Amino acid sequence: MPLPPVMFCAQQIHIPPELPDILKQFTKAAIRTQPADVLLWSAGYFSALSNGDPLPVKDRIEMPVATQKTDTGLTQGLLKVLHKQVRHCAPRGGHKEFVELQDLEKKWKNLCLPVEKFRALVKLDPCTDKIEWMKFLALGCSTLGGSLNTAMKHLCEILTTDPEGGPARIPFETFSYVYNYLASLDPEVHSAETESYLAALKETM
């Protein structure tokens, strides 16, 4: 004999007091980040939330990057999210020199970015299990399109501790290291030009 349907009333249903705020913050985060795959991104969001890790959430909604040759989904905002997540894993809150490729690929996927794009970036600086984070970040900035200076502008805006809209300053040593690295990958940029530019820049500081 089938059981009678269970009847519930409002008094029988307990709603955890923290649930409304969790759902509200989740909804706002999804709107700001605009993930391509909401379910995949949600899994990464709640996993990070439960572990106390930085959430895969952009600071604000971004407009598409017009200089990209193809729409890969990668933006400055998403690179900034990755940087926050990698920095969180670094000892004493500093920049992590190397990051495990497996861990980085997982973070990349949680942002709904195409895995083939990730592997293409890694091939630009071949490695086995780990990659130098600053180099990966620089390569990501370079794929957003434009010139070497445009890539450096993206990098400075990601790394700076200046308030948003400020000069986006970073240590000269960091700027010089990344500029030299990206310039070395561009056959049209000669080492003499790079040295001259960095020397002139240092004199103005």
UniProtKB/TrEMBL annotation:
Keywords: Cell projection, Cilium, Flagellum. The keyword Transcription regulation does not apply. It is found in: Cell projection, Cilium, Flagellum. It comes from the Eukaryota. GO terms for molecular function: identical protein binding. GO terms for cellular component: nucleoplasm; radial spoke; sperm flagellum. InterPro entries: ROP_DD (IPR047844). CDD domains: DD_ROP. One of its GO terms (biological process) is sperm capacitation. Its main location: other. The keyword rRNA-binding does not apply. Belongs to the ropporin family. This is Ropporin-1-like protein.
